[in-house]
Amino acid sequence: MQRQSYPPEILQYIPFFYVIWSDDLITASEINVVKYAINSDNSLNAAHRELLLSWSKPENPPENSLLKEWKQTISSSRVKLVESDTYPLTSFSQNLVCLYHEACPFNDQLKHIETNLGIQPNHYGHLFEVDIQRSSESKYYSASELDGILKGEHAELVDGFRSVTKDAIFEWNIHRNKSEFRDIVLEQVKFLADKGYGTTAYPEAVGGQNDMEGYAHIFENLMYVDGSLTIKFGVQFGLFGGSIEKLGTKRHHEKYLRDIGSAELLGCFAMTETGHGSNVRGIKTTATYDRASDNLIIHTPGKNDNKEYIGNGLHGTMATVFAQLIVNGKNEGVHAILVRLRDEQQQLMEGVKIEDCGYKLGLNGVDNVKIWFDQVSVPRENLLNKHGEITTEGQYRSKIENPNKRFFTMLGTLVGGRICVARAGLGGAKFALAVAVNHALRRRQFNDSVKVQEDLLMDYPTHQLRLTPLVASAYVYHITLDKMMASYCDDARPDKRVIETKVAGLKAIITWYANDCIQECREACGGKGYLLENRIADLKGDVDIFTTFEGDNTVLSLLAAKGVLSDFRSEFNSAGFTAVLKILGIQISDTLTTIDPRYSNKVDADHLYNPKFHKHAFNYRTQRLTYTLAMRIRDYIKKGMPPYQAFLKVQTHLLALGKAFSKELAYNAFADFVNEMPEGKNRGLFEKLGALYALHEIRRDAEWYLEQGYLGGTKSKAIRQRVERLCTELRPHIGVLVSGFGIPAHLMTAPIASEDWKIDFRLNVP
Amino acid sequence: MQRQSYPPEILQYIPFFYVIWSDDLITASEINVVKYAINSDNSLNAAHRELLLSWSKPENPPENSLLKEWKQTISSSRVKLVESDTYPLTSFSQNLVCLYHEACPFNDQLKHIETNLGIQPNHYGHLFEVDIQRSSESKYYSASELDGILKGEHAELVDGFRSVTKDAIFEWNIHRNKSEFRDIVLEQVKFLADKGYGTTAYPEAVGGQNDMEGYAHIFENLMYVDGSLTIKFGVQFGLFGGSIEKLGTKRHHEKYLRDIGSAELLGCFAMTETGHGSNVRGIKTTATYDRASDNLIIHTPGKNDNKEYIGNGLHGTMATVFAQLIVNGKNEGVHAILVRLRDEQQQLMEGVKIEDCGYKLGLNGVDNVKIWFDQVSVPRENLLNKHGEITTEGQYRSKIENPNKRFFTMLGTLVGGRICVARAGLGGAKFALAVAVNHALRRRQFNDSVKVQEDLLMDYPTHQLRLTPLVASAYVYHITLDKMMASYCDDARPDKRVIETKVAGLKAIITWYANDCIQECREACGGKGYLLENRIADLKGDVDIFTTFEGDNTVLSLLAAKGVLSDFRSEFNSAGFTAVLKILGIQISDTLTTIDPRYSNKVDADHLYNPKFHKHAFNYRTQRLTYTLAMRIRDYIKKGMPPYQAFLKVQTHLLALGKAFSKELAYNAFADFVNEMPEGKNRGLFEKLGALYALHEIRRDAEWYLEQGYLGGTKSKAIRQRVERLCTELRPHIGVLVSGFGIPAHLMTAPIASEDWKIDFRLNVP
To answer: Which residues form the Acyl-CoA dehydrogenase/oxidase N-terminal domain (chains A, B) (predicted)?
Structure first.
């Protein structure tokens, strides 16, 4: 280290003069502040004072050579600037002097200059070639390790995919014109098909990778690029291709799946009608078998019976059309039929009418349309005939005799798409959290007017409380959805109905969570969050509809609840229901014992952080809601109320059960995962995330737990305090936690999140 | 009434054949259903049967002349079609026969046709020239009476304004290009200025109407036209003009207000900076008085110190710029100075740099910009000098010595704008509710598969619970904001600080409410709500930022809480605070008595609907939160924690208090209003709305009331049941309730709300 030539009295002023003159920080009227301080500084002798005042003349600023000498003095010292100091620059000066001199007191006159000129680290940080020590950041955990845990066995696929998104075609931009936007998104979809991602989930026999779990990861990562791309990709490969894969048979697979995977053949999934969205069983489009021509005649009967909101509808040349199949005058229920929409010159086929749905709140890069069919003929072979077919003799045949069961079996095979929607919502939430947290780790506002530096948003307890539980939930839902997809893909588990019920509930709570989360992030970023460039605004518009499509969340929650109630039977009738009630009544009255007051007021940390308590609380709620619900319905039915009416009467109760069941499911999946993690710091972190999720969710239903006597007032308050405490404990790690989402640096374009990102958290794609 | 010539056996089939053949409802394969029914109908003789079968040949459909005869038969009968009947068309046929014949049994074969063909009223309603009797709608209340109550003494102004919005210039359209959108909005603002609305709030001395309360009504009604128009209007006349009116003196008023009111002079309100949004006291822009030139030099010192988000910034020629006023080297704190941005040729003035903020989530018709000043000179007279001025001798002078108090006095005069933002949020919420409720009164989905008609969304309990409390809240907040503006305008109440605290809290809860409400409405409309044409999407984007601008909601809630705590003093220091604690401690411990268990478990309807209970509950929460908060802070301070840190520690508690205080305030204002209403049915309705608001809000905080022992479990459950019960009771009136918002028919362009709107609820502009 080079010996300093300035005496300490002068040296202490060097950082100040360097900052003042390097950045034209000072205006003529403000120099008085500096002069006043120098004149009041008793540590200076006349000669020092004269020298310092000679550097305080706006009309005669120091030479550049002198500035360079100062800069060298500062840089070579290797003193660190500690941003969290109350007076960072004064402390820096003091530390500089301490390097070379025994006596190095804190100088109040320097503090006076720092305070009165409001010189802040963000104004001069870039001038110092020294490390800026950021406040309250820990490197204890590693973002790439967390990312590795989340990627699991799909790491190679995910990393490869993230690399591919570096291509210029995925560069984020503001798109206001839907037609231009859609063209770009179409090109992106084709690009991904060229790279082989279109066939990720298809069978190996048709050139696919048979990797539905990997597909779900890709799908979530697509949200980091753009919402419209995600949905268009999903419509083409997941819904259109997926419907052929799941509902068609070998002849369809061989004929179409390769072309669909390579995006040579673009198509739609035409289920929803204007008059029938949630109640798809009631769709009106007909597919009438005409024996003479051996064709199916697709027809839109009434004015609200057109297909609506059909994605890929301006680019697609074919559609999987859901219609009431009528064979020999008998309605065999809803079936899927491949219908050509456009010929090779992209001209509409005869009898097909298509209209653009127009501008939407979001997803304007997706071409949603309305479709009308006027007696459109397609060959009998176009019926996707896995679950029901028309024989060459013109007879309908199905292995599943009950038409309702047949319909639900068909729907059940499409559950994978619902998991993917939840994942996409989760991806949007993660992106918004990464923006909001990184903004909060940079943005400052307010101080106690003794500090020079204002406080980081992330250091405010309200800010911690609004963002940290959302981060924890993202981890929980990630693991849950992974496990759910694994179950769905596990052929050893044949009962898809159980999974369908679970997925219905999870899709609802996770897409609701995603919307709440994105809104919270928008507000947490203030006005900056409102600008499109910061990405949250688009996410808000795009993710919004996730609560509606692939099943309206309220309807899905009710479905999940009915699944719980009926022990996963699809239909209630008074006979079947009574039987179910009996089972439930017995099971539940056995397990629901009175809560011990010592338990309902147990507030020690060990208990509150214990997964056993969390599991018990979630399970108690589900069981108790089920039992009371069953009792209410039974009472109504006993009074002679038709079951349909009885269910309407308890609809809000059902909704509560649907949500409770899904949260229990999510927590259990996560807790089981954590249980199998190797011992170590990451497991400890995941345990903490699980505890925060559980306690936060229990708090949200605290009024119910209190009503039941499950929680006493003291315990309920203790849980609230623990939630806040956990948020504070996680504060130093929150930057790493959002980096753990693995959003590639090249996709994180939000200016408010990317400034300094490289230094601290930016995760580079391998 | 004309005697019918068909025998009853034939007559009963006429409506069916009319529907079937008029609308090409039937396909070849479905005619079998009709034939089967005729053949199975034992009430027919051979001749009847032959005649009916002769009308059942797709290859030979009935002549048009016959169809006309049938239509005449139906129309002349004047039988009503009751949509809510289980089998509407069968019942209609039965009623038709009953008109002419003694014997007119319900015919199961007709029911068979109706069910199997799925013939629904929405398919044939347009064919019948008869009244369609809608289900569960009551005409007991009158929308225009409700609207009259809400308009109060501003009816003439509001009605006149609504008429003016009929002009083609206000026609709603989708605007994707911000530049075109902004041009249109500018023309709309000028048009309103021409009609005299720009000067509504200005003093009569400068040609204004001195009607700030009326201005707030106009402002809310503007939201029915467009959010961007509302905000641009507010920036020009409220913020820019208002700042001159409130912070300037006579010379400024005379020189500028007429031109501003007529939109000859367009301007901005330049307060927020990139680095300082919430903490405006810390803004960095300087206005340095230069004695030599007698000018103020406006300057942007550092890289984050530019003005940001300044509305009207591309069209404005002048701005009220907030800056640190430095006179003779001393910083006198933040002051407002008029600065010319552009010359008469709309060229930027020297030293002024302006950049478009770019696309936003919403409000893209507002031209928000960033502004940098590089040593821009303006005459000393441009200082808005009501609260502080520079004398001709170049000395600073103010009647308010404390610079903080001076600053808050200046801000306090701008509180009217904050009320207006809350009103605009409320207007957005009302519009979204009108769309969602009217949609829910038309849209059907699902049935119990015995009914022909599916159920109206509005008849689902979950739907009632999601929308009805939001409608009640809109009424409560409307009255509250009206009263708050009246207090603000009442010169007999000089202590504006008290009102400022109240407005801060109300603005936060009402704009949060508005966002939640619009989101709920979006989801309640399903995919249709996602289309821009249905208006909710735009409202969602526009109203979103209301939670941030004119004060971030979290910051405002904390401000409100601090106001409560400090007995409305602005600054805390340990001495002053201790005194406050003393007062609070004494006051509160006197009023907070232990809750009698008989009270905490009182569940009779009279008690739960009694405003005394509601007021007590709201007040208990505010008082108790204040007391416990004060105790916590005192303990921290006793332990030697600096007050700033102590306040950080209790920040989430403060936030809860801020919200609780504001809800109490809102409820009390509404309850007092209802108390002064004349006896009668409308008062009864308003009482019900108040009860629903109160019980719903108490439920939302039920976990806290339970923890405190204020509510017992039984009472808490009873409140939940009462909320659901009230929603059901209000079900027949919900259409009228949203019509009572007075949204003019010509502005309600959402297709999903406007279908049949005229028949039932549409309110015509007088």
So the answer is: 153-263
* Angstrom distance (rounded) from CA B532 to CA A432: 24
pLDDT tens-digit profile of A219-256?
999 999 999 999 999 999 999 999 999 999 999 999 99
For tokens 């039932």, what's the residue? B760
What CATH fold (topology level) applies to the domain A153-227+234-261? Butyryl-Coa Dehydrogenase, subunit A; domain 1 (1.10.540)
CATH 3.90.550.10 fits B267-408, yes or no: no
Token pair listed for B120? 């629904």
Which of A358, A655, A702 faces B462 most closely, judged by CB atoms? Answer: A655
Q: Which of B120, B530, B542 to mutate to test the interface with A (most CBs of A within 10 A)?
A: B530
DSSP letters, B107-130, are -HHHHHHHHHHT--HHHHGGG--S
pLDDT-derived band of residue A265, with 50, 70 and 90 as boundaries? very high
Orientation of helix B88-100 relative to helix B14-22, angle to 10°: 130
Read off the pLDDT of residues A384-440 as tens digits, 9 standing for 90 and up.
Answer: 999 999 999 999 999 999 888 898 888 887 799 999 999 999 999 999 999 999 999
* CATH (one of 2.40.37.10, 2.40.110.10, 1.20.1300.10, 1.10.1410.40) for A267-413: 2.40.110.10
Across the interface, whether the CB atoms of B537 and A361 are under 8 A apart is answered yes
Contact B540 A545 (CB under 8 A): no
Cα gap A343→B740, rounded to integer Å: 52
Judge: domain B416-753, CATH 1.20.140.10: yes
Highest-confidence segment of A50-59, A530-539, B454-463: A530-539
Of the candidates A33, A279, A299, the beta carbon closest to that of B446 is on A279
Residue A706 to residue B699, Cβ atoms within 8 A: no
Name the residue facing A530 among B23, B174, B548 (closest C-beta). B548
Question: Considering Cα of B104, then B110, then B112, then B118, what sign does the dihedral take?
Answer: negative
Residues A315-358: pLDDT tens digits?
999 999 999 999 998 899 999 999 999 999 999 999 999 999 99
ipTM associated with this complex: 0.86
- Would you list the domain boundaries of chain B? 8-133, 267-408, 416-753
**B373: closest CA of chain A, how far (Å):** 13
Whether residue A456 has pLDDT greater than 90: no
Q: Which residue of B has its CA nearest to A543?
A: B530
| Contact: A706, B713; criterion CB under 8 Å | yes
**How far, CA to CA in Å, does A475 sit from each of A94, A465, A753, B110, B522?**
44, 16, 20, 58, 28
Determine, for residues B122 and A25 on separate chains, whether the beta-carbon distance falls below 8 Å: no
CB contact under 8 A, B329 and A33: yes
Mean pLDDT across the stretch A581-587? 54
**Which chain B residue is nearest to residue A448, measuring alpha carbons?**
B644
Q: Between β-strands B389-390 and B396-397, what pairing exists: parallel, antiparallel or unpaired?
A: antiparallel
Name the residue among A188, A214, A19, A194 with its Cα closest to residue A117: A19
DSSP notation for B555-605? HHHHHHHHHHHTTS-S---HHHHHHHHHHHHHHHHHH-PPPPHHHHT---H
B267-408 and B416-753 share one fold: no
CB-neighbour burial class of residue B510 (10 A; exposed 0-12, middle 13-18, buried 19+):
buried
Question: Is residue B764 very low, low, confident or very high in pLDDT (cuts 50, 70, 90)?
Answer: very low
Whole-angstrom distance, CA of residue A449 vs CA of residue A446: 8
How far does A366 lie from chain B, in Å, by closest CA? 13
pLDDT 10s digits, B196-222: 999 999 999 999 999 999 999 999 999
Nearest residue of chain B to residue A551 (CA atoms): B526
Q: Sort out which chain B residues have CB atoms less than 8 A from A532's CB and list them.
A: 358-361
Residue A324's Cα: distance from chain center in Å?
A: 36
